[in-house]
Specification:
Length: 153
C-alpha cells in the first residue's frame, strides 16, 4: 500500500471508487481536482492510496477559510472491495502527518447522521476523531450534519 499525491492519471480509477461508494457523482471529480493538478499555488491536498500500482482510494482536504491552522477533510473514499484493509486509515494518517508537518492545528470532517453513514462515523471514531458538533436537519429533513474533530498537536 502506498499513499502519494494524486496524479492526473488516477482520475479514471478514482471515478470508479466514487461509483462504488456513491460519495458524490464521479463526473464531478475532474473539475474538483483540476486546481490541485494544475496550480502549484493550490492549497488543496489530494492524496491517493494505491495497492499493487492501482489507485483504490483518495482523500481531499482544504484549509478552513478565516481560521488559523484548521483544515477540513471534505472527502475520503475507498473502493468497496478494499474497505476494511487499512487504506482509509492510512490515507487519513498520511494527511494528518502532512498537516502536522506544516504546523497546522486541527482537522475536521463532516458527515451525515443517517443510518447509512454509521460505518463512516465508526471510521472517524476508530481513527481518533471526536464527534464535536451536530447540526440538526442540515443535509435534509431528518439528516443531521455530524462534525468530527481531531487535534494535530
Amino acid at each position: 500500500m502506498k499513499i502519494r499525491p494524486t496524479k492526473h492519471d488516477d482520475i479514471p480509477a478514482l471515478q470508479e471508487v466514487l461509483k462504488g461508494t456513491q460519495l458524490f457523482p464521479s463526473e464531478m471529480l475532474p473539475n474538483m481536482v483540476r486546481d490541485f493538478l494544475s496550480d502549484d499555488e493550490s492549497s488543496d491536498i489530494w492524496l491517493t492510496c494505491e495497492i499493487e500500482g492501482k489507485p483504490v482510494g483518495f482523500c481531499y482536504a482544504v484549509p478552513e477559510e478565516l481560521a488559523e491552522g484548521a483544515w477540513n477533510m471534505l472527502a475520503i473514499a475507498v473502493l468497496p472491495t478494499e474497505q476494511g484493509g487499512g487504506c482509509g486509515s492510512s490515507i487519513a494518517k498520511h494527511l494528518e502527518e502532512e498537516l502536522k508537518a506544516r504546523g497546522q492545528r486541527i482537522l475536521i470532517a463532516d458527515t451525515s447522521g443517517a443510518d447509512d453513514f454509521a460505518p463512516t462515523r465508526d471510521f472517524y471514531r476508530k481513527n481518533g476523531y471526536a464527534e464535536e458538533a451536530r447540526i440538526r436537519d442540515f443535509w435534509a429533513a431528518g439528516d443531521d450534519k455530524i462534525v468530527f474533530w481531531k487535534s494535530l498537536g
